[in-house]
Amino acid sequence: MSELTVSEVTASEVTASEVNSLARQLVKDLVPYASARSSMSGGAVWLNANENALAPAYQLDGTFNRYPSCQPKAVINAYAAYAGVSSDQVLVSRGADEGIELLIRSFCEPKTDSITICPPTYGMYAISAESNQTAVNKVLLDNEQLDLDGIFATRPKLVFICSPNNPTGDLIPHQQIIAVLEHFKDKALVVVDEAYIEFAPEASVVPLLSRYPHLVVLRTLSKAFGLAGLRCGFTLAAPQIINALKKMIAPYPIAEPVAQIAAQALSAAGIRQMQQSVTTINQLRTDFITAARQMPGVQKIWPSNANYILLQVADAADCVAALIKADILIRNQSSQLGLSQVVRVSVGNAAEMQRLTVAMQQYFSADNTALNNQPKREHA
Known about the structure:
Elements: H1 3-12, H2 16-22, H3 25-29, H4 36-39, E1 45-46, H5 73-83, E2 90-93, H6 95-107, E3 114-117, H7 124-131, E4 135-138, H8 148-152, E5 158-162, H9 174-183, E6 189-193, E7 215-220, E8 233-236, H10 239-248, H11 256-265, H12 268-292, E9 300-301, E10 308-312, H13 316-325, E11 328-329, E12 331-332, E13 342-346, H14 350-366, H15 368-372
Parallel strand pairs: 1-11, 3-4, 3-5, 5-6, 6-7
Antiparallel strand pairs: 2-8, 7-8, 9-10, 10-13, 12-13
């Protein structure tokens, strides 16, 4: 047997347990984020990941043998113009998720600092913190609003506020966000996640950036722009914060094809296309809510300002399973703190929403006797 063959045999005999023994305890203990795509597969109608079904097509030019710019000027300048800020207030990253990661890595000392979040909310805030050995203060929303006293009782480095909030779809009142900003002056950064803000643009807190240098705003092209597959997000903040994040970001975070498509999406024509898509989605959302109000098994409907609707039903797992049989994927959000027996429905195109409505009507009709025995709650 040759030396090469012996080496190959030795390497092949390394067991999974031996490899696992090399991993940090943190990695062994960490529960990863269960994305919609990783936790569910199949189906012909995907309404479980808050994607935009009305996405336009894009074209690529040139060759890709050169490394891309870390912060491509065309993209930075276009997004700055779109958001109404200066270019030195913008960082582009691999989705807003990387922005979350960078903020925690840049401003939170492992095993020392903490962040504050307001469940039910986006799960990556907590997971990114835990992977950085940063504690997580959880202050539950109170009737879809912030529990200010609870938040003020924490001593975090970062406060994360999602508005419109995922998965509930509610907007956090401006006055509450301002109260948080006032309280944490010179104490912490306040991060407002506006991933879905295009569906309620009047609610953006970007105008507050000039008043509060510790405000950070997260944005993305994944939702209203219909570019979830692109993985392109933005962090808007004071130049000093942006410069700190640049020290932590990878040298080539944005691939050249991503930069080209992002620049096209942020052109005048691309923004018009996005706004037309938002108008259509908001109307489809309203139409579905109207239909859902007539379904006997829907116990509560959260008011939504995004491209999804949260519904409380008698049995969330059974509802999701029944729709899978109809080749439709929606998402069970019952594991979220503060929620019970809820499903989240993303707004698809007109044909998909019609198919969903019919399938849900059939499901609740088939289970009508059992459902009518459940206590009926008022629609929000």
